[in-house]
From TrEMBL:
It comes from Sphaerisporangium krabiense. SUPFAM superfamilies: HAD-like (SSF56784). CDD domains: HAD_BPGM-like. Keywords: Hydrolase. It comes from the Bacteria. GO terms for molecular function: hydrolase activity. PANTHER family: 2-DEOXYGLUCOSE-6-PHOSPHATE PHOSPHATASE 2 (PTHR18901), PSEUDOURIDINE-5'-PHOSPHATASE (PTHR18901:SF38). The lineage of its organism: Bacteria, Bacillati, Actinomycetota, Actinomycetes, Streptosporangiales. This is HAD superfamily hydrolase (TIGR01509 family).
Length: 224
C-alpha cells in the first residue's frame, strides 16, 4: 500500500475528510461504549458485532443493534444510550490519527477543505475539539444535518456545493466501506485508509495511514 498510482498524477480542487477512524481515532471509543452497551444486556461484543455498526450513522447503527437485541422499536432509545456512552469516552480518550494534523495542514494550504462525518453534530464537535481540529475546516457537515447520511451521497454533494467545486474535481478521504460508497456515489475520487482489514477496498488509492510517504509527497507537490 502507498505506492504511486494514477491518482497521484491528478490534483483535486477541494478535499473532504471523514472524521471518525480517519482524522480521529474514535473507533476504540465507540468500541468501549458499544461493549458497555452490549454488556448491560449480558451480550458479548466482538468483530462480528463491530462489523454490524462501523461506518453507519448513529440511527442506522442503533436500529441494527435493536434488532440484534430483540428490542423492536427501541432504536431511538438505544441511540440515545449509546450517544451518551460515546460522548463521555470521546471527550476523555480520543486522539488524532497518526499523520492527521500534518496532512490536513498541507492539504488546507493548497485547496479548500471540509469534514463530513456520519456522527451527529455533538459528537463531531467533541471529536474535533479533543483532536485540536476546531476551526480548521470552513465547511463541516454532520449526519443529523442531511436527510440521508452515508452511504447516501448527500453529505459529499453538500460539501462540494458549499466548497464551490464539482464532485468530480474533489477528493475524499475515507476509512470505511460506508463512507467509500457515499463518496463514490457522489462522484468523488477516494483515498482509502481502512480501519478494518479489507481484501477489496476499492478506493483510487489505499494507504496504511495519513502519514504514508507517497501520499504526503503527492500533497506537497500541489501548488499553493
Amino acid at each position: 500500500m502507498g505506492s504511486e498510482s494514477p491518482l497521484y498524477s491528478w490534483q483535486p480542487k477541494a478535499v473532504v475528510f471523514d472524521c471518525d477512524g480517519l482524522l480521529m481515532d474514535t473507533e476504540p471509543c465507540w468500541t468501549v461504549a458499544e461493549t458497555e452497551l452490549f454488556a448491560r444486556r449480558g451480550l458479548p461484543f466482538g468483530v462480528e458485532q463491530k462489523a454490524l455498526v462501523i461506518g453507519r450513522s448513529l440511527p442506522d447503527a442503533a436500529e441494527a443493534v435493536a434488532e440484534l437485541f430483540q428490542e423492536p422499536g427501541r432504536g431511538p432509545a438505544i441511540a440515545d444510550e449509546l450517544l451518551g456512552l460515546v460522548a463521555e469516552v470521546v471527550g476523555s480518550r480520543a486522539e488524532a490519527m497518526p499523520g492527521a494534523h500534518d496532512l490536513v495542514a498541507a492539504v488546507a494550504s493548497a485547496v479548500p477543505v471540509a469534514v463530513a462525518s456520519n456522527s451527529p453534530r455533538a459528537l463531531l464537535e467533541a471529536a474535533l475539539l479533543r483532536g485540536g481540529f476546531t476551526g480548521v475546516f470552513p465547511v463541516s457537515i454532520a449526519a443529523d444535518e442531511v436527510d440521508d447520511p452515508k452511504p447516501a451521497p448527500d453529505m459529499y454533494l453538500r460539501a462540494c456545493e458549499m466548497l464551490g467545486v464539482a464532485p468530480g474535481d474533489a477528493l475524499a478521504f475515507e476509512d470505511s466501506m460506508t463512507g467509500l460508497r457515499s463518496a463514490r456515489a457522489a462522484g468523488l475520487r477516494v483515498v482509502g485508509v481502512p480501519t478494518l482489514h479489507h481484501d477489496d477496498f476499492p478506493a483510487d488509492q489505499v494507504v496504511a495511514s495519513l502519514g504514508d510517504d507517497g501520499l504526503v509527497g503527492w500533497v506537497r507537490r500541489w501548488p499553493i
